[in-house]
Write a structure and sequence with these properties.
Pfam families: TGF_beta (PF00019), TGFb_propeptide (PF00688)
Number of strands: 18
GO cellular component, one term: extracellular space
Distance between the termini: 49 Å
Strand content: 25-35%
Number of domains: 3
GO biological process, one term: BMP signaling pathway
Structural class: alpha+beta
CATH architecture of the largest domain: Sandwich
CATH topology of the largest domain: Jelly Rolls
Largest sheet: 7 strands, antiparallel
Strand order of the largest sheet: 8-5-11-3-18-17-14
Organism: Latimeria chalumnae
Order of helices and strands: HEEHHHEEEHEEEHEEEHHEEEEEHEE
Main location: secreted
């Protein structure tokens, strides 16, 4: 009975732990940008320990063309910290099983002729139509009311925030989400988050649909039932910083393994720079000589011809540090700037060790090679297990994207 009780308690704890972890992560991300009373900001990476794999705002702004939104920086830092601590980030991935998060920044401006609503416009042309859309949210910053006494005198303290779809040809506005706010309860800025998954999914499914997605935000007084302009209750775009603009966030899941080369190709097409695929040239002959000497040394180690004798290094995992800046990709990859990919190197000779997890074919091939090296080549030392990394980058539409790429880090090597 004690064993059963212990097992039940352990199982209950595991469920509660993962629920708590997921709630903590998503809650932290959702509140990742909450301005303080002094007009500053409290973001998630302030709550996390500063480590080399975390991204600061100053690092993210180095691109010069796109300003990554605070939400995306916090999301990357949060999930990177989870992965660093040994948790599988896919278990707490935002919005169900999403492995890609795409952010779109509001492109509209205040219309002085519009007195009762505020419009938000997003270009979603770069959103994949083949990936499964599993969630979407509109994030709008509501600052504290500047003239609180005037707002209270005109419309009271309770207001209803209604998010509608924009009217179109033969289409009436549709109420997408709503909530009630009390302007007396708010002392600092807050992000209002609206669920817009259904309208984005339906918009994608329409034939010849426009690539622009539009929302109208309206505010209705609970006491007078009259409309107030959103700018009067903290939704103004006046002097708005890039980090304060409304953000449409799409959570999607790709069943196929994403190819990093596809992102490179798309960036080349958008920039028109056909030389981007060429290896980076340092412009210094001495560096070229060092690279050639290093390649010859690696080749000699791999084929066993180094210094006139056969190399006895067995198949194992070796360091391979990848620096995206040296590859010339730092203009579109925000984070990480570098990572340890590792590689497999060494000989697969007979008898093969069990930790190399050789296939039956590799065992036979290695045996044949041991008897007649001239007729049968040795089996190859290759990755037997690979793990993913997450990349924060700028896509061809200049949108900031968080995506998990499989098979990026060698975990173990084997003979095949």
């Amino acid at each position: 009975m004690d064993l059963r009780r212990t097992a039940a308690v352990s199982l209950l704890f595991s469920f509660c732990f993962w629920d708590f972890l997921e709630a903590a992560v998503l809650g932290s991300i959702q509140d990742s940008f909450t301005a303080d009373k002094q007009g500053g900001s409290l973001h998630l990476d302030d709550k996390l320990p500063r480590r080399s794999n975390l991204l600061s705002r100053s690092q993210a702004l180095r691109n010069g063309t796109v300003v990554p939104h605070e939400y995306m920086i916090s999301l990357y830092n949060t999930l990177s910290e989870i992965e660093r601590k040994g948790f599988n980030a896919s278990l707490v991935r935002t919005r169900n099983r999403a492995n890609t998060v795409t952010s779109f920044v509001d492109q509209s401006k205040d219309d002085p002729l519009t007195e009762t609503s505020q419009r938000y416009l997003f270009d979603i042309s770069s959103l994949s139509e083949t990936d499964e859309l599993v969630g979407a949210e509109l994030r709008v910053l509501r600052k504290s009311t500047e003239n609180l006494s005037l707002a209270l005198a005109q419309a009271g303290n309770l207001h209803h925030i209604n998010l509608n779809s924009c009217p179109g040809e033969n289409e009436w506005p549709e109420l997408l989400d709503s909530r009630t706010i009390d302007i007396l309860d708010m002392e600092s800025s807050k992000w209002e988050v609206f669920d817009v998954w259904k309208i984005l999914r339906n918009h994608q499914g329409k034939y010849n649909a426009t690539k622009l997605l539009c929302f109208d935000l309206e505010i209705v007084s609970d006491s007078s039932k009259e409309h107030s302009h959103p700018r009067n209750l903290g939704f103004s775009r006046y002097n708005q910083q890039p980090q304060e603009r409304a953000l449409l966030v799409a959570f999607s899941y790709s069943k196929k393994k994403e190819n990093l080369f596809r992102e490179i190709r798309d960036k080349i097409k958008s920039s028109g720079n056909l030389d981007s695929l060429d290896p980076p040239d340092s412009g210094q002959e001495i560096h070229s000589k060092h690279r050639r000497r290093r390649r010859r040394a690696i080749s000699a180690r791999s084929t066993g011809r180094g210094h006139g004798k056969r190399s006895k290094t067995r198949c194992s995992k070796k360091p391979l540090h990848v620096n995206f800046k040296e590859l010339g990709w730092d203009d579109w990859i925000i984070a990480p700037l570098d990572y340890e990919a590792y590689h497999c190197e060494g000989i697969c000779d007979f008898p093969l060790r069990s930790h190399l997890e050789p296939t039956n074919h590799a065992i036979i091939q290695t045996l044949m090679n041991s008897m007649d090296p001239e007729s049968t080549p040795p089996s190859c030392c290759v990755p037997s297990k690979l793990s993913p990394i997450s990349i924060l980058y700028i896509d061809s539409g200049n949108n900031v994207v968080y995506k998990q790429y499989e098979d990026m880090v060698v975990e173990s090597c084997g003979c095949r």
